[in-house]
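Morning!

This is the sequence you dropped in the shared folder:
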Amino acid sequence: MSRIDNDLLSVQEARILVENAREAQKELAAFPQEKLDKIIGQMAKATSKYAKELAIMSHEETGYGKWQDKLVKNIFASDYIYQKIKDMKVIGIIGEDKANKTIDIGVPVGVIVALPPSTSPVSTTIYKALIAIKSGNAIVFSPHPKARKVITKVLDILIGAAEECGLPSGAIGCLSTLAVEGTVTMMSHQDTSLILITGVPKMVSAARTSGKPVIYSGPGNGPAFIERSANIKKAVADIIASRTFDNGIVSASEQSVVAEECIADEVKEELRRSGAYFMSPQESEQLSKLFYCADGSMNPEIVGRPAVELAKRIGASVPEETKILISEQKNVFASNPYAREKLCPVLAFYIEKDWMHACEKCIELLVNEGRGHTLVIHSQNENVIREFALKKPVSRILVNTPATLGGIGATTNLFPALTLGSGAAGGGITSDNVSPMNLINIRKVGYGVRQLEDITRGIKGGQTPETIYPSASYRSIDSIQDLHEFLNRLLKELA
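The structure's back. Tokens below.
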């Protein structure tokens, strides 16, 4: 089959999938919350049974990371996230203020197009499907080409379990004829309501030009600042555990360490004791050439590879127990690979005079890449923590916790999620850890509680605007037009 034929088939299939999803969602929109909850319960239960099998399959297909850590993410998605959302009220009346006579009604957005990543294909697919159906939406997936088989497998499990429990056919769909043209067609289809992208940077431009709202988890480039009051041993242990989790492919994980000058030597020594290898300038230069392809995209050959393997690729002799490679850096600029996201167990290391200079360094790193994502601070000084929280261009500040697990809400009380919104700063529409609440519109109901004259009545002893501002030529306000005319005269008086 020619490429042109494949493209045309993909486009046709994309149209059919979205149209089927539209019809299924019309039926789904009438489901009460209880029925939706029953369906996602069966979906979560079914995928939980296959968590290990899917983790191994994911690693074998992509070659990324560690299957053991992918198993943790799969359980997190199918068990932990499900437990968090199962009792949420998302559809129908979700809030009522009887005193103020207002009601909030949750309404599904409609058809969602989802693009899961190759780095966490199973857990992200489970998560997206659960939050979409929980909120009464249909969802159509365009699998990542590098994880096509495992994403298709997990969707087969999800669809089978959901449809046995009453989910309308077509409410969860999967594009089987993969082509960029098919994915673009799904995103720009008139019946698509929302695009949900996690870790597929090459498709972001097409998503943004589709005319649809986009929830996007952009690239992470989170610095971890170790302030002088920090528990250095714990801070280093957290950073090592986080940066080596699934061999460093989680975007929320630390990409660099910024240490205050007065504790830098102690931090470096603790890093070495914990399995970090500080590269020479020559080794750093050699490794930097492997991070990105000529077109600026991430080199898939280094994604999720262990530190020892990366060292061997540049001919560096490191101890077999090495967990992380570290490059000492001073400057941040766009062409410096160490100042960008690195989806492998590699860290940049910066030394700054004090927390104020460290603050500026962190901002430089985030502006360079990762704006709107995540930052970590290890400190016992609440004033410094607050200063960082107030000034950093990120959507989440993590304090004294591993970034990988803290960012997704595993070791923090942030909402558990596998799509971390980067907000307007990162080109998306939300900065939240994305939950079912981000996939609905809230219809507001407001009862009349006052009349127009209640608004225009004087607030002091029976005074009217006419007595306060005589030249405004106040007269009885009986209509919106009268009100507009009065306000215009009032503005002239005030001027």
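Headline: The chain has a mean pLDDT of 92.

More detail when I'm at my desk.
O.
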